Amino acid sequence: MTVNRISATSDVNRRSLWAIALIATFAIAAFWLTRPVTGAQSLSPVSGLMTLKASAQTATPYETAIANGKPTLIEFYADWCTTCQGMAPTLQAIHQDYGAALNFVMLDIDDPQWREQVQQFNVTGVPHLVLRQSDGAITETFVGKVPKSVLVERLQPLL
Predict the structure, then answer these.
(1) What is the CA angle 58-36-156, rounded to 5?
(2) Would residue 153 count as lying in a domain?
(3) Among the four residues 73, 95, 108, 145, which has the most C-beta atoms within 10 Å?
């Protein structure tokens, strides 16, 4: 009878340890996936989406950008687009570096209010980046992932 009690206690202790290990693993994973973006690259799609949403909140409204005479970078994006999420920290860094001299506009292709602009700029995939001069002329269009160095090189003549 004593052996059965020891065995039962041992099983309970083992299950408790497994439960603690499982909880700790989930806590670490949750922290890792939802941590704020601190570098140019993020391994977490959740943090990429958070950066994308934050950038959209601080972006210049489309109507303002078209009317104010400054050069403009328009990003057509979608929340579900993993490439958009991956590029979000890069575009956020460029926005921080050039925000005073350049409009940064973000248009969600899934939002029906931008349907006309999606057609006007021939958006065929996301991310779709359009560089406009201050007079409205389009100087460059990119579809897909673009290295920061290429974007900065193409932005320089607009500034």
Answers:
(1) 50
(2) yes
(3) 73
Strands (E), 33-154: 72-77, 103-108, 128-132, 138-143
Instruction: Flag whether 78 is in a domain.
Output: yes
**108/56 same-domain check:** yes
Task: Examine residue 147 and say whether the peptide bond preceding it is cis (omega within 30 degrees of 0).
Answer: no
d(CA 117, CA 17): 57
pTM of full prediction above 0.85:
no
Cα 62 to chain centroid, rounded? 19
Q: What is the pLDDT of residue 37?
A: 47
Domain co-membership, 26 together with 49: no
pLDDT of residue 21: 83
Domain range for 3: 1-34
Q: 28: how many CB neighbours lie within 10 A of its CB?
A: 10
- The number of domains in the chain is 2
Name the packing angle between helices 82-98 and 148-155 (round to 10°).
Answer: 40
